[in-house]
Design brief:
This protein is mainly alpha-helical. The chain has helices at residues 4-17, 23-29, 32-35, 50-53, 71-78, 85-107, 133-154, 165-170, 180-195, 210-231, and strands at 56-61, 64-69, 109-113, 118-122, 128-132. A hairpin with a 2-residue loop joins strand 1 and strand 2 (64-69).
Length: 234
């Protein structure tokens, strides 16, 4: 759910507290689950659905059926490979998505009319409004984009750079085959569309407050650190 900027800001926090080897490769791995969706990396070698990239399972929160990353499934598959920075970073992306999606559905969404696909949404001013899923997705993404640009301006995020070892480490992932082109195009996309975006924008948040997003980021970083420590015992 979080933007790549938010994912990588969380990586920075985690790397400062946890002992992460190959932190550049670890950072790149934190965006790898999204590469084959085709929304950012242009013309990836494969187009894949979330069910294969994010290991989802069905959960119910506030009367809604939602998909969350199945962390146990991933650990069962790759538990012996967590010393590989690609595996650990990929897992960290799933942990982060798991935290943010749960927080979103628990704190802001509830089912209003399942047949019509309408949700009752708690806005950042405390009011509740009715939206379709598509409408609230647009509002959510606008808030996250505003916050991402704030992070770019106000923090010194360490964005990943190309490393030929990324390809070698990624071969451990059994479901997908990443290519040199996939890696290079992704790094170039970050350089051209994310890293350089530091322009001032109006902070007209609707769904979240800025402080709430900061809290989610800090708490999810702590959650990731705890999961990494647990995974290191596998």
């Amino acid at each position: 759910m979080p933007s790549w900027t938010i994912h990588l800001a969380i990586v920075d926090k985690v790397c400062k507290k946890a002992q992460i080897s190959n932190d550049n490769i670890f950072a790149f791995a934190n965006i790898m689950p999204d590469i084959f969706e085709g929304h950012k990396t242009p013309n990836p070698s494969t187009i894949a659905k979330k069910y294969s990239t994010h290991y989802p399972y069905n959960a119910e929160i506030n009367g809604m059926k939602v998909e969350l990353p199945d962390l146990q499934k991933f650990k069962k598959q790759y538990g012996k490979d967590f010393k590989n920075p690609i595996i650990l970073g990929y897992y960290t992306h799933l942990v982060t998505d798991n935290y943010w999606n749960k927080a979103l559905y628990q704190n802001h969404y509830e089912m209003y009319d399942e047949e019509k696909g309408l949700l009752k949404i708690k806005m950042n001013d405390g009011t509740k409004k009715i939206f379709s899923f598509i409408e609230i997705q647009e509002i959510k993404h606008k808030d996250l984009e505003i916050f991402s640009q704030c992070l770019n301006r106000e923090t010194n995020i360490k964005y990943p750079t190309y490393d030929e070892k990324i390809l070698e480490y990624s071969k451990t992932l059994k479901e997908f085959t990443y290519t040199v082109s996939d890696i290079q195009k992704t790094i170039q996309y970050i350089e051209d569309n994310i890293k350089i975006r530091k322009e001032k924008t109006e902070e007209n948040y609707q769904l979240f407050t800025k402080q709430e997003l900061i809290d989610y980021m800090n708490k999810s970083a702590q959650y990731v650190e705890e999961e990494i420590l647990e995974s290191s015992r596998i």
